[in-house]
Design brief:
Largest sheet: 5 strands, mixed
Radius of gyration: 21 Å
Strand order of the largest sheet: 4-3-2-5-10
Number of helices: 14
Helix content: 25-40%
Strand content: 5-15%
Length: 410
C-alpha cells in the first residue's frame, strides 16, 4: 500500500459551494436549526457555535460509526458490507453473534488485519467476545448498546451511529453520504417512529415474553407468558423500524445519561417482543431534550409484505430502479450473493469484486483494472456522484418546514 502526499489543507476546491445542496435546502436546514434552538432543548447543539455551513462556506465532514452485525454463516456477507461502506473517515464495529463459530470471527479479524488501508487508519474493530442475540427479544438491544459503548470508548470523535446487518447493503458510496451529511445540523436523529402502533399493540406491546438469550449460551425462541399487560401510563410508546441513524449525543444519554428514563425503558423492553422496533424510539420521544431532533425516516429502502407490513421482502433485480429513485442511502433485505448486489456494485458503487468502494481518497490508477485504492491520499477529499443528488432530494423533502415538525414524535 502506497500513501500519496497529503496536503495540509483540505482539497475540496473542486466542489463548488453547495453544488449538491441547493439554496432551498440550506434555507430548510437553517430553519430547522433555528426552530430547534427555540424549542427549549438543552442538547449540545446551539446555533451560535455549531452552525456547520453558510451558503458560501465549506462544511466540515462528519464521521460515521457503523455497527455491522451477523450470525452463523455471515462472515463473508459482513465482509462484503464492510467493503461496500468503508471509508477512512468512519469507524466500523463488526459483530458475529454467539451462534457463529470462533473460526468465523477469526476469519473476519484476519481480513481486517490483512487490509492495509484498514490497518493504516485503525478504524475497524471486530468484537471477539460475542453476544448471544435472539432477534425477537431484548438481547438485540443489549448487543447494540454494547456496541455503542465500545464506540464511545474507542472512537470518540464520531457524529452519527448507523446499524446495519449482513442482509443490508448501501445504494451509494460513502463520499455521497458524507458530503450530504456535512450540511446537516449534527443533532438530527433519523428513525422511523409513530405512537399510532395499530396491530402492534396486541402483537408487540401487550404480550409478555422471556428471552432465554439473557441466561442461556445457545440461541432459542422466546417464551410467551399467558398473562397480558396494560399499556404504560407514565410514558408513551413509540414504534418503528429497527434501523436507525442516531447522534452520538443521544446515544451517550442512552448509555450513561443523567436521566433514569433510558434505564427505566430498558427494563420495560426486557419483556417486549421485537424491542429494537421501540426502545430508541420511545426514549427519544419521551425526553424533552431529544424529541425535537427526530427525522421520521430510517434512511433505508424497504419493501414490506402487505398486509400486515411485518416482514421485509427480499429485494431483487426487479426492485433496482425503485431503490435508486428512492434516494435512500441503504436498502434491505438481500439474499446472500443475489445478482442485484453485483448490479449495485457496478452501477452505483463502482466497486469491483472483493475491493473497497472507491472514493476521493483513492488516488491510484484504475487503468487496466487496477484498484485505485491501493494508493490513498487525503481522506477529507470526497467526490460526490450523481447519487448525492437523490439523497439531497430525500433530505430536503424530510426537512421541509411544512412537514418536518408535524412528523416528530406524534
Amino acid at each position: 500500500m502506497k500513501k500519496a502526499h497529503i496536503s495540509s489543507s483540505l482539497d475540496r476546491t473542486w466542489l463548488l459551494p453547495l453544488i449538491s445542496i441547493s439554496v432551498l435546502s440550506f434555507v430548510v436546514i437553517l430553519a430547522v436549526t433555528l426552530s430547534h434552538s427555540k424549542s427549549g432543548s438543552t442538547s449540545d447543539f446551539t446555533v451560535s457555535d455549531q452552525i456547520l455551513v453558510d451558503r458560501m462556506g465549506q462544511p466540515e465532514l462528519p464521521r460515521l460509526a457503523y455497527l455491522i452485525s451477523g450470525t452463523k454463516g455471515d462472515s463473508a456477507r459482513v465482509k462484503r458490507v464492510l467493503q461496500a461502506v468503508y471509508h477512512p473517515m468512519n469507524y466500523y464495529l463488526l459483530h458475529l453473534d454467539l451462534e457463529a463459530s470462533d473460526s468465523e470471527r477469526l476469519e473476519l479479524a484476519k481480513y481486517v488485519k490483512s487490509e492495509n488501508i484498514m490497518r493504516g487508519f485503525k478504524n475497524v474493530m471486530v468484537i471477539g467476545k460475542a453476544n448471544l442475540v435472539t432477534y425477537k427479544g431484548p438481547t438485540m438491544i443489549a448487543s447494540t448498546l454494547h456496541a455503542v459503548a465500545i464506540l464511545l470508548k474507542q472512537a470518540k470523535d464520531w457524529d452519527w451511529f448507523i446499524n446495519l446487518s449482513a442482509s443490508d447493503y448501501p445504494l451509494m458510496p460513502q463520499d455521497d453520504i458524507l458530503h450530504i451529511f456535512s450540511y446537516l445540523p449534527r443533532d438530527l436523529n433519523f428513525l422511523e417512529h409513530s405512537s399510532s402502533i395499530g396491530w402492534k399493540e396486541y402483537q408487540r406491546a401487550r404480550p409478555i415474553i422471556i428471552d432465554p438469550g439473557l441466561y442461556h449460551s445457545k440461541k432459542s425462541g422466546v417464551f410467551w407468558a399467558k398473562e397480558k399487560r396494560s399499556m404504560p401510563a407514565s410514558f408513551k410508546l413509540f414504534m418503528g423500524s429497527a434501523w436507525v441513524v442516531l447522534t452520538k449525543s443521544f446515544l451517550e444519554f442512552c448509555v450513561s445519561g443523567w436521566d433514569n428514563l433510558p434505564r427505566t425503558l430498558l427494563m420495560y423492553y426486557t419483556n417486549f417482543l421485537s424491542s429494537p422496533e421501540g426502545y430508541f424510539h420511545t426514549v427519544i420521544c419521551n425526553h424533552k431534550d431529544y424529541q425535537n431532533t427526530t427525522v421520521n425516516h430510517d434512511l433505508h429502502y424497504i419493501r414490506w409484505d402487505n398486509p400486515p407490513k411485518q416482514h421485509p421482502m427480499t429485494l431483487t433485480l426487479k426492485h433496482f430502479d425503485d431503490m435508486v429513485q428512492s434516494g435512500a442511502p441503504f436498502a434491505r433485505k438481500f439474499a446472500k450473493d443475489d445478482p442485484v448486489l453485483n448490479k449495485i456494485d457496478e452501477k452505483l458503487l463502482k466497486r469491483s469484486n472483493n475491493r473497497l468502494t472507491p472514493g476521493g481518497w483513492c488516488v491510484g490508477s484504475s487503468a487496466f483494472g487496477k484498484d485505485p485504492c491501493l494508493v490513498y491520499g487525503n481522506p477529507y477529499a470526497v467526490k460526490p456522484t450523481a447519487n448525492s443528488k437523490r439523497l439531497e432530494k430525500l433530505v430536503v423533502r424530510l426537512l421541509d418546514s411544512e412537514t418536518f415538525r408535524s412528523k416528530q414524535c406524534k
